């Protein structure tokens, strides 16, 4: 198998009990975020990622040479993920979202595991000594390194970010709970589009999973993606201002709409704001995420038309009309 990630693993035996590991580890809070590092969620993401890459890309993230007894536990656990869970999307599948919410709930008790999660938890508890011995210390250290690199920037920029993104989307920041929960994980969500590693978010309330494996070599990138993910709840439905404006114009003027255009707008909004905030803090950030990685085909027209809305020199309706008309001309 080819290797997509190169990971170095320590071999350290820990004595942490299952009951201690089941607790959510609150790392820190800011005005608008609470950051958590959950042992079991990290183990779950590691196994799902390895299974996904095995099945979809004939690749692996594991470089460890196990002794036979640990190899047997690893193989049986991975086979369960490949046979039962790899086909379930981490974000959109009801079971996977439910498991994430349950395993990260501070009131979760392993003395009362719901029947629907019992089989998976049996598998994870059996694998627990192997994950601790070979993987956890390195995953935790990498997560904390990325978090510590960004927490000061978050504190210095979050207030202005929330003020500006709620103004652009005409939607309030969530207030129950007032802080967006962010679970920090070494691995996040992989897709067959890139086989990379990405953060993901579930709504109501907004719950962000921020990974550290992947593309974090660009200073500021992690902060931009955090802000993007945490703002998903501001643009979700057609009854919300951004999506509603786009849909209304498309219907009224018979303009073809790109799929998920409100999400494209959110990438531009959050990237534009994050870039300005980072540069205020002395962080050189020459390109926002969408210039480099996603929806790049729309970026020139967004710069031409949507920037005027951000600068409050145009309405969203006018900017969107101009954007869609020029986009439709070229199709």
UniProtKB/TrEMBL annotation:
Residues 1-20 form the signal peptide. The keyword Signal applies. Keywords: Signal. This is DUF4932 domain-containing protein.
């Amino acid at each position: 198998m080819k290797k997509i990630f190169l990971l170095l693993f320590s071999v350290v035996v820990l004595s942490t009990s299952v009951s201690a590991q089941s607790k959510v580890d609150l790392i820190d809070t800011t005005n608008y975020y609470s950051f958590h590092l959950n042992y079991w969620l990290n183990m779950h993401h590691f196994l799902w990622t390895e299974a996904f890459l095995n099945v979809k890309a004939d690749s692996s993230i594991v470089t460890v040479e196990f002794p036979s007894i640990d190899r047997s536990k690893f193989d049986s656990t991975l086979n369960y993920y490949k046979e039962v869970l790899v086909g379930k999307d981490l974000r959109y599948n009801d079971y996977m979202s439910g498991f994430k919410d349950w395993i990260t709930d501070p009131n979760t008790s392993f003395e009362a595991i719901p029947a629907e999660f019992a089989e998976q938890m049996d598998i994870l508890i059996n694998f627990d000594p192997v994950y601790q011995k070979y993987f956890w210390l390195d995953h935790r250290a990498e997560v904390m390194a990325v978090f510590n690199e960004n927490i000061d920037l978050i504190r210095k920029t979050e207030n202005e970010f929330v003020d500006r993104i709620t103004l652009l989307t005409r939607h309030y920041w969530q207030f129950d709970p007032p802080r967006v929960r962010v679970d920090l994980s070494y691995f996040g969500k992989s897709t067959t589009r890139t086989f990379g590693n990405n953060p993901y978010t579930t709504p109501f309330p907004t719950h962000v999973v921020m990974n550290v494996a992947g593309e974090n070599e660009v200073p500021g990138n992690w902060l931009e993606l955090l802000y993007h993910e945490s703002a998903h709840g501001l643009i979700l439905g057609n009854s919300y201002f951004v999506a509603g404006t786009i849909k209304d114009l498309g219907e009224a003027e018979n303009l073809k709409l790109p799929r998920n255009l409100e999400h494209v707008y959110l990438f531009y909004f959050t990237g534009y704001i994050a870039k300005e905030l980072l540069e205020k803090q002395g962080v050189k950030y020459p390109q926002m995420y969408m210039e480099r990685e996603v929806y790049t085909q729309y970026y020139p027209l967004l710069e031409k038309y949507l920037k005027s809305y951000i600068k409050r020199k145009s309405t969203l309706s006018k900017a969107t009309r101009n954007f869609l008309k020029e986009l439709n001309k070229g199709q």
